[in-house]
Amino acid sequence: MPELSVVIVASDSEQRTVLQVLVDGTSVAHAVHTCASYPVASTDPVVRRIQSANADVVLVDIPADNPSLALRSIELLHQELPDSALFVIGSMTQPQVIVNAMRAGAREFVERPSTTTDLLEAFVRLTTAQRKGRREESRGKMFTIVNAKGGSGSTTVAVNLALALQASHGNTALVDVAQLGHCALHLNLKPLFTMADAIRNLHRLDSSLLESFMTRHGGGMQLLAGPTTPVTAEPSTAEYAKLFDLLVSHFRYVVVDASTRLDATTRLVSNLAQVVLMVAHTDVASLWSAARVQQYLSESGNREKVQLVLNRFRKIPGFSESDAEAAAGVKLLWKIPNQYFAVSTAIDRGVPLLQQNHTEIARSFTGLAARLTENDLDVKRKAWSLFKTV
Ligand SMILES: Nc1ncnc2c1ncn2[C@@H]1O[C@H](COP(=O)(O)OP(=O)(O)OP(=O)(O)O)[C@@H](O)[C@H]1O
Ligand SMILES: [Mg+2]
Q: Superfamily assignment of 4-134 in CATH?
């Protein structure tokens, strides 16, 4: 993620200092200029100073006791700085101020008192949206797999989806962010390095060093393994954000197994992903949990991208697929058949299902990979040229 430059506009000097520390603390942005007064006219010298900073983001603090001046300046800055994104900091107890700020052109409203994580999430949303806008086809696509409930099959889906993507398109990475990484076991790999090594070397990490921390599976898929013992010192969200930025610039497809963790890391890898696959079973407890997890992930703006994968699918008389979608509040993307013997033997032997060609369950994962990539431009192009040569 390229570092974002930020201008801070806040009349309160303490708040200016706090915001500067928070912005710099995200590690993905830095404050290049601060202003103590709100500009009121385009001829105001403050406007020129802000323009000359050429910032990606202008962060405007709206004081609770006198919001009108700050709101007017947001409208003005929106006109005068069409290439900068306006973020505002304000109080959630003043809904009319929030509405007015958004109408005046603010892109993000961040609650006061703010945290580094709040700002980081807003910065990540901005760069993700800009990337989409620029149609940066050279960057990889990321799929994050989360469980509705422990043991629903997130790791099985992540491992086999990554293998299917590797088989069809190549250049695929599997990243294990679960608190205890099981992906290596499913693949019968013995990694020399894990995620922790990549994070520790983040300051000098480039594509080749990153690959040296990854473990190659037979077919070419690369695994960035998770911890083999529970870790006490978790990487920060900013560290993860940097690592994933490098991963998507190096790999065409990045599959992330978050399994059952529900925290800032899962939120971040969901924010960064194009699609979040929520793995659930077709029972009341699982679908109830799916709705809760969906709600949690939606708080940081992921509602549209979360899609349901019903694992161990079985038809239940009187309970339709649309009933499952309604209970989970998530659109159904895929169903994976219930084949306990095949799946548990595959895990125990470390021979993934995808390597056992021509089984119904292997075909299901190949189908899921095809579905997730059907709109990718180069995949479409390849399908078309194949068609032409037939
Ligand atoms: N499609 C399936 N059919 C039958 N059994 C399955 C299927 N998928 C997974 N299982 C079984 O469910 C168990 C859990 O699978 P897996 O390790 O993938 O789950 P997980 O959700 O990642 O677990 P955790 O919450 O511990 O991370 C496995 O032991 C496997 O045997
Ligand atoms: Mg797991």
A: Response regulator (3.40.50.2300)
